[in-house]
Amino acid sequence: MARPFKICPDCGAHLDASEPCDCKDAIEREPPKPRERLKLLAVCREVDKESGRVSVYPLGIEITSEVITSLKMRAQFNPELRYFTTTTARWDRYGEVMAGILKRRTVSRADLDNIGGICEI
Prior knowledge:
This protein is of the alpha+beta class. The chain has two domains: 1-30, no CATH class; 40-120, no CATH class. The protein has four helices and six strands. It has a four-stranded antiparallel beta sheet, sandwiched between helices. Strands 1-2 form a two-stranded antiparallel ribbon. It is elongated, with a radius of gyration of 26 Å. The termini are far apart. This is Threonine synthase.
């Protein structure tokens, strides 16, 4: 009685009778490229004290732990300023939508959850 499977002589894999082994394909394939690290972007939401006008703009600085700490302190001392972080790729794709939501008179945590991919510092 014949075996219902065959064994690959190169890698020892158990294969169906008509199934070709892909072990040689795996060797010939390129290794996966490492993923690029996502870059963080800080976004400022500023309310003008006199006119009440809301401005939203990205900050052109590299995000480090020191920057996050200083933005957090600045927001505590200036209640008209709120800072948010997102990735540059997400801002490039959805920045207008995010800015539109952040320009509302009030922005709640639920609003941020609905946007997704953005958090307050």
